Amino acid sequence: MMKSIYRALNEKGRLCFCENLTASLLHQFARKKFTDWGGRWRYVTIDEIKELTSPFSSMEFQTMGFWGVFGRTKKLSGMLGMLDGFVDRYVKEKNRYIVSCVCCKEQAEKR
User: Fold this and answer.
1) Which of 4, 12, 23, 37 could make a disulfide contact with 27, Cβ separation 3.0–4.6 Å?
2) Is the pTM value of this prediction over 0.90?
3) Is there a contact between 103 and 59 (Cβ–Cβ < 8 Å)?
């Protein structure tokens, strides 16, 4: 899929996306225990994101979120999401559950 997107972009095109990550053991347990899809869905790791985006000349990403996903109502999710804004810096990157990524396709200039 990424190779197809890469080919479809113009010379200086950019791909922007967000994806759910494997995240922490707590996230993995909660997905399997409390969602219908948790045992079937395949979540990616940061290393897999790096590999998938390797055709691009540059890639920048940011991970975020730990508690917000556990909110079962919109209000609680919002409150926990605000908490994430304060605690993200203390949570290891591999334990966060969202990645935001910008990939650039910049080819060498023609001479």
Assistant:
1) 23
2) no
3) yes
Q: What is the layout of strands, in order, in the sheet containing 14-20?
A: 14-20, 98-104, 58-64
Kindly tell me the sign of the dihedral angle through the C-alpha atoms of 20, 26, 28, 34. Answer: negative
Tell me the β-bridge partners of 63. Answer: 99
How far is 52 from 102, CA to CA, in rounded Å? 13
Contact between residue 60 and residue 101 where contact means Cβ atoms under 8 Å apart: yes
Residues 6+ apart with CB under 8 A from 38: 30, 31, 32
**Beta-carbon contacts of residue 37 (< 8 Å; ≥ 6 apart):** 31
Q: What is the dihedral of CA 29, 32, 38, 40, to 10 degrees?
A: 120
CB 87 within 8 A of CB 66: yes
